[in-house]
Amino acid sequence: MKKGCKFGTHRVIEPKGALPQPALKIDNDMEIYDNEILIDVQTLNVDSASFTQIKNQAEGDIEKIKEIMLDIVATKGKHQNPVTGSGGMLIGTVEKIGPAMEGKTDLKVGDKIATLVSLSLTPLRIDNIKEVRKDIDQVDIKGKAILFESGIYAVIPDDIPENLALSVLDVAGAPAQTAKLVKPGDTVLVIGGAGKSGMLCLYEAKRRAGVTGKVICLTHSEKSIEKVKRVDLADEYIVVDATRPVDVMEKVKEVTGGEMVDVTINCVNVPNTEMTSILSTKDDGVIYFFSMATSFTKAALGAEGVGMDTTMIIGNGYTKGHAKISLEIMRESKELRDLYEELYA
Question: Please, where in the chain does CATH 3.40.50.720 lie?
Answer without folding.
Answer: 173-344
